[in-house]
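User: quick one
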Amino acid sequence: MSQTSLQLVENLNALATGLFLLTAFGMVAMRQARGCLYLFIAQSILLALSAALLGLRFDSGHLYGVALVNAVSKPIIVPWLLRRVAPVAIYTRREIDQVLNIPTALLIALALAVGAYFLGVPLAAAAGSGSQVPNVPIGIAGLLLGAFTLAVRREALPLLIGLLAMENGAFLAGIAIARDLSLLVELAIAADGLIIVLIVGLLVRAVERQVGTTAVGELASLKEAPARLAAGEDRA
Amino acid sequence: MSERILFNLLQVLVVMAFAPLVSGVLARLKEMVQSKRGPSVFQPYRDLWKLFHKDEIVSRDSSWIFRFTPYVVFVTPIFVTLLIPVLTSYPLFFAFMGDMLGAGFVLALGGFFASLAAVDTANPYGAIGASRTRMVGFLAEPVFMIVFFTVSFVAGSTIPYIVQQHWVTPVANFFTPSHVLLVLAFLMLILAEGGRIPVDNPTGHFELAMIDESKSLEYSGRGFALVKWGGQMKFFVLICVLLNVLVTPWGLAAEQNLGAVLLALPILLLKVFGFVLVLVVIESSLAKLRLFRIAEFLGAAFVTSVAAMIAQVFAA
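Assistant: Done. Structure below.
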């Protein structure tokens, strides 16, 4: 591959990872459960794109496999599963609340992203192979932002999406460092993710049926509010 | 030398002549999206003509600021036009008079006087509008700063002509993540600064919900025409910076002759028309945000610009 097209591929990969970071921020700021899901789909597509571009860059057929697995499992199967298992959590609630207000959450997320760079750049340099692409620091940032989403959300579906976003971040960092993992491992991880979606989705459905809401952040106050519990039993 | 002064003045004429057309085309296209016919695209020109021929009424209790402000609002975008690439890709006579930061300050000066004049008349809606504009302004300011500093860090200069050259030369430069994120942040900034839809509704007539418009409520006749025209020129200038420096830095005149410069004009108008189409999509599909959600919108712009900055700083 010529030098200029190599440069172009690297820049396109950097672009995909940059937009990946933006979707991770979006998940922290998004107010709608469906919006969170769409952002997750976009993030997964960007992850697959980055894997394909790195496959082109490092001439690795294995990474194309990773891209394919990601492009099929996350943007297509995960929403389908969620729609089958927990439609209420996706469709009914228009707005979801957070522990923090959104500008504060965004500022903390920003600090996390900067911290991820301080962590990720030396890490990629130590790994030796992925230091010329920005995947490692942005992947770590995605991981931290997913964890942050998990910490501040009080609604079941965005919590699940935060968990999946953490996995996306780890994947994005992983494809730059460990390019020749066996495809079996990747498939196992993808299947693992789908099982998580299925289990959490069923859990959400059970919670919804028991309590009448998917706002799991309020579950802590159930003991003090017997009236709500009674209402939930009525519905069940 | 004299040619460069001439082209610089030509840029000013172009901005003055075509700024009202942008809002005319925008209004017409928005109406067409809603299956209505809408006013002619030349309606803003007719409005200006009408206002210039009307009597001006100035409140007896207002101070010199009120009378002085329309001229400031009208002149500041013209000053900025001298500094930025509108038609040519090479720096013109006044290009080194000030950089992007200076242009930002000059535009802010117009906003400052507009806010003062709004308070000056003691019209209650004027003060509401002024304080809201200041709120949007100080939320937009950090985004402005980070966008400018990242751009100048990338290109090694704060002169818009030189920044513009940086994105043109290798195509790969254009696809760097910092560039795309900067474009997004700057677009959100333009929507906020220009008083466009997710932040402010420019066609609304309800005083309590106004942000940008209520500052000119007390003006009439010639003063109102100048304020209106100045606002349209400011928006046009911001669009020119976005398009010619960041998004589509191609199609500007590279040779120093009148023919090439005149040929750049239709290309510029085409680019602006493309941007107006994007604006129509944004304005027809989004609703105006509640006042305290504006902080979230500009917070998102801030995060985008900082993401661009860290992507650039750590990639280098």
